Amino acid sequence: MSCDFKSVMSQFCVYGDFIKSEAYGCGHINDTYAVYLDNGGNKYRVLLQRINNNIFSDVDGLMNNILGVTSYLRDKITARGGDPDRETLTVIKTKDGAPYYKDAEGSCWRVYVFIEDTITLQSARTNDDLYSCGSAFGGFLRDLADYKAETLAEVIPDFHNTPKRMETLKKAIAEDKMGRAQSVKEEIEFALSRTEMAAKIADALKEGRIPLRVTHNDTKLNNTLVDAATQKCICVIDLDTVMPGSALYDYGDAIRFSASTGAEDETDLSKVNFDLGLFEAFTKGYIEASAGSLTGSETALMPMAAIIMTFECGIRFLTDYLEGDTYFKIHRPNHNLDRCRTQFKLVADMEIKYNDMGNTVERIIKELQ
Ligand code: ADP
Ligand code: GN1
Ligand code: MG
Fold it and tell me: pTM of the prediction?
């Protein structure tokens, strides 16, 4: 889609002349750009995003969530002597004071302050990276523990309702729009044989065994920024899916992405394994930073949550493959199928290592007592 970035930027309260824009980042949903500006010789950049409003239909609700959560976090960060300009996102409003701009074609644009001198990791370089990432997401949970969840719009209802995701998969198999089901019989069989396991978090929530909290819901390592100087994870970003949810969604999804030895779309599955050392590092950071707010029922389900969230992502990729790749951006044929296969490989590996995962969680909790 061609686009007049200069004209889009002219809608926002930014100083200086437009120099250029560059595609930025590796997200699967939004389109992200670094926009360079020149303010009387002072060159700087901002982060421009086209919000995917096929997926996020309530952009007003979504942006209100982000404004509410970032201003709340800003106060918390300031109160503890941190730097709110680097430790949370800052929305730059339009000249009309709105949090986003809708252009004539219906595209919705937002601008954030670009948090400079940070890096984004696509995979952990060391266990310390994951310890730090765990601390950031555990801290996010802790900081938002008293946020009024009922004020948040549910931007994607049932986002991590795994049984509902299973129903959607079954519908996609039955419809088989692209005629692809026959070629992925093995993956379909893998998914359908785990229906019971898939419901364990949803059941625990329904039965009130675990609490509903304000959660991030998309806790990939690349949804955090690492300070280039300290190499510590300083900011949780990509707040589009902040909603009421379970801490197990955040924990499990982070493990899914970060404790793998391979990329999410690796085609050589021998490179994709679940790494207990990475698992331990993230888990330690997460439990420590959540500062005692996790209940016993939640910690007992942590290993299962890692499996379920990995499985859920796998069935979402499989569903999208069957439906003709309409949800996740793809960059090659079979991209969603490749992604599904890495997730299922991880699920199988985690199932083998399940007892070790449980022992690790228990040991971390004991060491913290
Ligand atoms: P998506 O929803 O498509 O995943 P993200 O909001 O995660 O989009 O942004 C994509 C990438 O852009 C991130 O992984 C990160 O590298 C970078 N990014 C996002 N926001 C900022 C920011 N405020 N400052 C610096 N980099 C950012
Ligand atoms: C999407 O936007 P991004 O790339 O951070 C997706 C997540 C998936 C993830 C898989 C709104 O996240 O739910 O887990 O891809 N976001 C949405 O990589 O669906
Ligand atoms: Mg992202």
Answer: 0.97
Half-sphere exposure of 359 (CA within 13 A, CB side): 6
Residue closest via CA to ligand 1's atom 13 equals 25
**Closest C-alpha to ligand 2, atom 7:** 218
Question: For the residues 64-87, what does the mean pLDDT come to?
Answer: 98
**Phi and psi torsions of 329, nearest 5°:** -60, 135
Cα–Cα dist 179/60, whole Å: 37
Residue 90 Cα: closest atom of ligand 1: 23
The answer, yes or no, to whether any atom of ligand 2 lies below 6 A from the CB of 160, is no
| C-beta 238 within 6 A of ligand 1 | yes
pLDDT tops 80 at residue 261: yes
Per-residue exposure over 184-221, b if at least 16 CB sit within 10 Å of its own CB, e if not: beebbebbeebeeebbbbbebbeeeebeebbbbbbbbb
Q: Return residues with CB closer than 5 A to ligand 3 (ion).
A: 27, 223, 238
Q: For residue 168, what are its two tokens? A: 């959607």
Q: Is 115 in the pocket of ligand 1 (CB under 6 A)?
A: yes
- The angle subtended at Cα 36 by Cα 32 and Cα 40, nearest 5°, is 155
